Amino acid sequence: MKEGDGDDRNLEQTQETSESRHHANRGDVEQLRAAAGPLLEELARIPDGDLVADMVVNSLKLLGDRTNRGDLKLIDKSFKELRYAMKVFAPYGEVRKVSLFGSARTLESHGDYRQAAEFARRMADAGWMVITGAGGGIMAAGHGGAGAEPSFGLAIRLPFEQSTNRFIADDPKLINFKYFFTRKLMFVRSSHAIALFPGGFGTMDEGFEVLTLIQTGKSAPMPIVLVDEPGGTYWKSWQRYVETQLLERGLIARQDLSLYKVTDDVVAAEEEVRHFYDNFHSVRYHRDDIIIRLHRAPDAAALAEIEARFSDIKREGKFCVTAALAVERDEELIADLPRLRFNFNRHDHGRLRMLIDYLNDLPR
Prior knowledge:
- By secondary structure, the protein is of the alpha/beta class.
- It contains 12 helices and 11 strands.
- Helix 5 runs parallel beside helix 6 (about 140-145).
- The longest helix is centred in the first third of the chain and has 25 residues, at about 10-35.
């Protein structure tokens, strides 16, 4: 069965019932939309109400789209999961977070477990929060290392391997998900860094997905560290595969290798994550331009070097240092930060990461 609502009723019967319901109610849909008019007008008067109004309109459209009941339940339940998860994360929006991925089967005595616990402890001591899947193995190591207060648990309902670990079991920051796709969305959108420890298919899936999202610009740039136990070969072997099968075949560009770091040293992993934000704060797009928000603006000499070294990632124009743009007025907390703005080609995200590294190395 595909990932869905898990309803045991016969699918054909469900579809037949759904189609009959839509035929019976189709004439009422326009009346419902008209009746919702006053509500939509009221929503338009409050902040962000226009977006909620769009959700209402699109929900009503489902009644006329011949959508079967199983799909309606999937939309309803995933919307509820996302709404609740965003509510839980909302009070911690200004705190940086790192997501840890790895095997649920890793024993507490294993070097990978100890590495994950130590990495999480170090990140929590640095003021970061830690997000893991709430199960055992590497997930328990992350929560145990960080402690409950700076931890989020994003659990998935499975018939095996997913009993909630003792560190997060009774915490209000534990969120239970029915669907993998909603859970994965919250992992990525809530994170400022990703740490991968050895794991199975799920770890590979999560690692390759976040690399794909950053490589294609569908996720904001962030540091990705792949951490072995001391002397371990899991990620080193993975790196050989990437180089010999993906890079040598031309399936990725060499610059894509800059999107992540492989290490067996948790201190180096922590430094990689923290250094990424030494000068870089965040990015925002405006029309064809990318706006990189910084703590320290490049001076004239650094700007000239950027122009010489990174002109290949521009479509046109020059790199320029600016103040906050009018389009950024909704982000008052960072209004005073300087910006580096240029016409990004939206393609070379590995090179963009190299530019961010250069900016982070600028003297204080």
